[in-house]
Each structure stands twice: as structure tokens, then as C-alpha cells.
Design brief:
Elements: H1 4-27, E1 31-32, H2 49-61, E2 66-67, H3 71-76, H4 79-105, E3 116-117, H5 135-158, H6 169-193, E4 199-200, H7 202-211, H8 214-223, H9 225-238, H10 242-248, H11 254-261
Parallel strand pairs: 1-2
Antiparallel strand pairs: 3-4
Helix pairs in contact: 1-4, 4-5, 4-6, 5-6, 8-9
Length: about 260
């Protein structure tokens, strides 16, 4: 069995990895090829121009901008922008997966899993009073799909240059800025109004685990495979939980079963 704590700890690891990748790829955006002129040769650029202008731009933007060490590469390749967009896509993939999990875990209560409760952020239905919709998770899904679409556009544009020049950067930046803006604006809302308000439906979780065949897997080393399989079949036939059957048959004490599941 896996606990909710295990599940959400894995989410935290995923977000941490995404954050580090975004920070790493963002740093690759700081080199500027300004002054490279037509093909990165720097022809007709006044002496000292690059140093002065890039220093001024760094002051104005409060960004640690630096000179691109290879101006030909800086003009013909859009790898840095594509890599940053790819890191945003990676974050979107993880956030989308987390949102899907939350929607599934919160489904119910009658015909779904109902493992967690989510905050009600609006009236859920005109015909079903009290219905709670996973609207914020759905909104996150839509944002993530847009980010992925933007990255597809960035990827194609990054490969659309010819020889020493790729003129597609404006279109790439439009997509990247749109993606960063959507994520920057919505992630705090998603956290404050959904993640921070999640609750565990402990009774439902306990009931499900006691009926789950996963207990059979854990019991096999203690009571043997054949008897474990028999217990599972009897549980399906009688409707009794595997936990209760194990205790009723004196195979293990209640404390031993609970310790096994802890």
C-alpha cells in the first residue's frame, strides 16, 4: 500500500526537480549576442559598444546579462530559449499529472474514489446541491495544455533558422512569456485555494485498504501464498474485509494486522 503522505511527497520531489531545471535553463538566457551584426562577426560594431550597451541593459532590467561568448552561435541557435520552454513544459507535465490525480482521488462520493476532500470554490451544480467540482484542478490542466502547445511552437521555431540566422525569436518569446505568465499567475491560486485545503477522507481510506487485495500481498510471507489467495476469494464471496477474515480465523491478531498495514 501507499499512503497519501507517500503520494504527495513524490509530488514535492517532482516540483523540486522542475524548479531546479527551470532555474538552470533560465541562467542560459542571460548571454546576449547584441552587437554581433549580420552573422555574428561583429563587423561595423564600434569598439566598446557591446560592453556599454549590455551593461546598461543589465542595470535597466536588473538581470545578470552578459556578453554571448560566441556571437555566431548566439545568432544562429535558439537552443537556450527552447531549453527554457522545455523546462516549462516539464513543469506543466508534472502539474497536469498532479491535477489529474487530485481529480481522481476527489471523485465521488458514491461512484468514485472519494479518498480526499477538496475545497468548494463555487456552487457545484444547479441540480445537485452540495456537489463540489475540481474546477481549479481542471483549470490547471487547461493551462498545462496551453504551455505544452506553446512549447511545440517554440521547438519548431528553434529549428526554423537558416545558416547563421534564426529570425523566429519574437514568436518564440511570445509563447514563452505567455506560458510563464499563466503559470506565474495561477500556481499561487492553485496552491492557496486547492492544495492547502485538501483533506484526507480517513474513514473511506481505511475501509478501502481493508478490502484491498494489497493486504493479500503483504500477508503472503506470513501465512503463505495459497492461504492468502483463498482469503481473497472468500472476501469477494462474503463481502467481509480481508482484515476481519484474518482475525476471525486466528491467523493474526488485530494489532498484528494493523501493524502490517501501518
Amino acid at each position: 500500500p501507499i499512503t497519501l503522505g507517500d503520494e504527495f511527497a513524490s509530488y514535492a520531489v517532482a516540483i523540486d526537480k522542475c524548479t531546479k531545471l527551470i532555474q538552470y535553463t533560465a541562467a542560459e538566457l542571460y548571454p546576449v549576442a547584441l552587437g554581433g551584426t549580420a552573422v555574428g562577426s561583429g563587423a561595423n560594431t564600434p569598439d566598446g559598444y557591446r560592453d556599454i550597451v549590455i551593461s546598461d541593459l543589465a542595470d535597466i532590467s536588473s538581470l545578470p546579462l552578459v556578453k554571448e561568448p560566441d556571437m555566431r552561435h548566439g545568432l544562429q541557435s535558439r537552443f537556450a530559449a527552447a531549453a527554457f520552454s522545455g523546462a516549462l513544459r516539464g513543469l506543466a507535465s508534472e502539474l497536469g499529472k498532479i491535477s489529474n490525480d487530485i481529480r481522481l482521488m476527489a471523485s465521488g462520493p458514491m461512484a468514485g474514489l472519494s479518498e480526499i476532500g477538496i475545497p468548494a470554490v463555487h456552487a457545484g451544480s444547479s441540480i445537485m446541491p452540495g456537489k463540489v467540482n475540481p474546477s481549479l484542478a481542471e483549470c490547471m490542466n487547461m493551462i498545462c495544455y496551453n504551455v505544452m502547445g506553446n512549447d511545440a511552437s517554440v521547438s519548431m521555431a528553434a529549428g526554423a533558422g537558416q545558416f547563421e540566422l534564426n529570425v523566429m525569436l519574437p514568436g518564440m518569446l511570445k509563447c514563452i512569456l505567455e506560458s510563464t505568465d499563466m503559470l506565474y499567475r495561477f500556481i499561487p491560486i492553485f496552491r492557496a485555494n486547492l492544495i492547502d485545503g485538501l483533506t484526507a477522507n480517513e474513514g473511506r481510506l481505511q475501509s478501502d485498504i481493508q478490502r484491498s487485495p494489497v493486504i493479500v500481498t503483504l500477508l503472503a510471507p506470513r501465512i503463505g501464498y495459497q492461504r492468502s489467495a483463498q482469503l481473497y476469494k472468500e472476501s469477494l464471496a462474503t463481502g467481509k474485509t480481508i482484515r476481519d477474515l484474518v482475525i476471525d480465523m486466528n491467523l493474526m491478531t488485530a494489532d498484528e494486522v494493523d501493524d502490517l498495514l501501518s
